[in-house]
Design a protein that fits this description.
This protein is elongated. The protein has helices at residues 10-52, 64-87, 95-98, 103-111, 113-116, 129-174, 186-201, 212-219, 228-239. By secondary structure, the chain is mostly helical. Helix 1 packs antiparallel against helix 9 and helix 6 (129-174) runs parallel beside helix 9 (228-239).
Length: 241
């Protein structure tokens, strides 16, 4: 049966834009966040490679002249660490906008305060095998965490695309409250979309202990809504059903 509206009908276009706007905005936000997280993952991986090339030292009792040599050597290693971190992790395009922290502050935030002690100038901290192992482990954790976050963001983007397609089809079916198209079953379809979305949001990541609620708070914290799919469904119900 011929529908009472066309895909290019201005009223239908208005409905579509209104309903799908949260999903369009969310997709842009997720893609930007995904690009930034991936850039950070690569940056930490590069930093780890630089750390691997720094030789360790073994502190020992020594004459004053030898102690001074050890201090000078430690200072040189500290500068190598700082340069490596600055030229990798702090060189991502969004660093100043997103973080804007000093080098030591960012190391402490990302790799723990204990690790950050080795980045302080004139700290006298020795670059021992134990410290290098601790630093390397912290860097690996930073890389792994961003890999998992990229996977979550990919899943989020896929969920947004699936929900968008389903809602777009419903917009075409109903056309708005002015349409005489029967809306029997639309509520059920909306519930199905919502339930599928909630299953993803409530799923907990066993590695990090976080769930989709945490991800939505993190990704959409600056938006007018926290749950874009549910917002789109609510808009559809208000306008059509």
């Amino acid at each position: 049966m011929e529908t009472s509206h066309r895909a290019d009908d201005p009223v239908v276009r208005s409905l579509r834009d209104h309903v799908l706007e949260p999903l369009s905005t969310a997709t842009v936000v997720v893609e930007r966040e995904r690009a930034e997280v991936e850039a950070e993952r690569r940056a930490f991986a590069r930093f780890g490679e630089r750390v691997a090339g720094i030789e360790t030292e073994t502190p020992s009792a020594s004459e004053p002249g030898q102690r001074q040599m050890l201090v000078d050597t430690a200072s040189n290693r500290t500068e190598r660490l700082r340069s490596a971190f600055r030229e990798s992790v702090m060189s991502v395009d969004h660093y100043e906008e997103r973080y804007g922290e000093s080098l030591v502050e960012h190391v402490a935030a990302e790799l723990t305060a204990d690790v950050a002690a080795g980045f302080r100038r004139n700290s006298g901290a020795a670059f021992t095998e134990f410290y290098k192992s601790t630093l390397t482990g912290a860097v690996a954790t930073a890389v792994d965490g961003r890999e998992r976050l990229c996977e979550q963001l990919d899943e989020e983007r896929s969920s947004l695309e699936t929900s968008r397609r389903a809602l777009d089809e419903l917009v075409e079916t109903c056309g708005g409250p002015w349409s005489e198209t029967a809306t029997v079953g639309v509520e059920t379809e909306l519930d199905d979309i919502a339930q599928e979305r909630q299953a993803l949001v409530q799923r907990r990541d066993p590695a990090s202990g976080t769930d989709g609620h945490d991800l939505c708070d993190y990704v959409y914290g600056n938006a007018d809504w926290t749950y874009p799919v549910l917002t789109a469904i609510t808009r559809f119900r208000t306008a059509v059903v």
